[in-house]
Amino acid sequence: MVKKNITLGEFIIKNQASFQYSSGELSRLLNGLRLAAKVVNHEVNKAGLVDIIGEAGDVNVQGEDQKKLDVLANEKFIQTLSKREIVCGIASEEEEDFISINSYDEKHQNKYIVLIDPLDGSSNIDVNVSVGTIFSIYRRVTPVGTPVTLEDFLQPGRDQVAAGYIIYGTSTMLVYTTGDGVQGFTLNPALGTFYLSHPNMEFPETGNIYSVNEGNYVHFPQGVKDYIKYCQKEEDDRPYTSRYIGSLVSDFHRNMIKGGIYMYPKSSVSTNGKLRLLYECNPMAFLAEQANGKASNGKDRILDLKPTELHERVPFFCGSRKMVEKAEEFMAAHNE
Ligand SMILES: O=P(O)(O)OC[C@H]1O[C@](O)(COP(=O)(O)O)[C@@H](O)[C@@H]1O
Ligand SMILES: [Mg+2]
Ligand SMILES: [Mg+2]
């Protein structure tokens, strides 16, 4: 039985066996993320009081207007991760290309690749709705002693060594996995310390919440339309409740606690959906599977997809296993 209320640092040391490489390396990685999370949390909490609301004035590689908090979060995570003498490369939603980071001895001794969505749910920043940060961690595949290459970033999701998110909501939490279950830590703002509050988080096998932007309904494939109608039908334990925050991290977090499915399907206006495989879908899929949930593109397991580009998008169905299987059934009925 995992004792609650131990700190993140204590938990990592106590559970070093759950990380296939040295726990010292994991600590340094998570410490970097933890520090940046606290800085971003501080800014998020006073958004509106200080000039952190609104557009930054630039457009990112996705063609989206960057929010000031997107830019700040991006800078903070890259800064802290670059200084830990452990990360050799970072890719971010807000950076067109990957960033190569050399070790202090200039001999490319660092071993970890980090992919991040520095601020998830950007459309919610200015309206005081919860947002998040998502991270995905791999060991490099190119030899230590050489600079990282694109190959190090285009690894299938099943090779992640750790993944997680920070949610800036009613409380601030860091939720992560190293392939041995999912642990949730809550920030005690007075002490600036994360404490284990949600050990061994698990998706209920099924649930009654569906999360999808129904404003896109007319553009959805027939299989998705049929599944939404199925969720809304008065039959058995249905109709389900529709809940859509518009921040992937927040919708995922709620569905993991209560049972539910999140969908961002392909549509006639976005042929591969909206979400990015490398720093949104892969990390959330790793967490989902580690929490007995499921994640697919409507047909194939997300973690088995072979990435081809840094910012590629994929359709995303994720959550309680039985609900994702049901949605896949409807997709398969239309060969979608
Ligand atoms: O407004 P839409 O089209 O429903 O999209 C909302 C989805 O897009 C996202 O905001 C994309 O993430 P970013 O905010 O990091 O770009 C998800 O968090 C969210 O689930
Ligand atoms: Mg995002
Ligand atoms: Mg983002």
From TrEMBL:
It is found in: Cytoplasm. Substrate binds at D120, G121, S122, S123, N213, Y244, K274. The keyword Transmembrane does not apply. The keyword Iron-sulfur does not apply. GO terms for biological process: fructose 1,6-bisphosphate metabolic process; fructose 6-phosphate metabolic process; fructose metabolic process; gluconeogenesis; sucrose biosynthetic process. InterPro entries: FBPase_C_dom, FBPase_class-1, FBPase_N, FBPtase, Fructose_bisphosphatase_AS. Mg(2+) 2 binds at D117, D120, E280. Its cofactor is Mg(2+). Residues 6-199 form the Fructose-1-6-bisphosphatase class I N-terminal domain. Its main location: cytoplasm. Pathway: Carbohydrate biosynthesis; gluconeogenesis; Carbohydrate biosynthesis; Calvin cycle. Binds 2 magnesium ions per subunit. Keywords: Carbohydrate metabolism, Cytoplasm, Hydrolase, Magnesium, Metal-binding. Its EC number is 3.1.3.11. Pfam families: FBPase, FBPase_C. PROSITE patterns: FBPASE. GO terms for cellular component: cytosol. It comes from the Bacteria. Homotetramer. PANTHER family: FRUCTOSE-1,6-BISPHOSPHATASE-RELATED, SEDOHEPTULOSE-1,7-BISPHOSPHATASE, CHLOROPLASTIC. This is Fructose-1,6-bisphosphatase class 1. It comes from Zobellia galactanivorans (strain DSM 12802 / CCUG 47099 / CIP 106680 / NCIMB 13871 / Dsij). The lineage of its organism: Bacteria, Pseudomonadati, Bacteroidota, Flavobacteriia, Flavobacteriales.
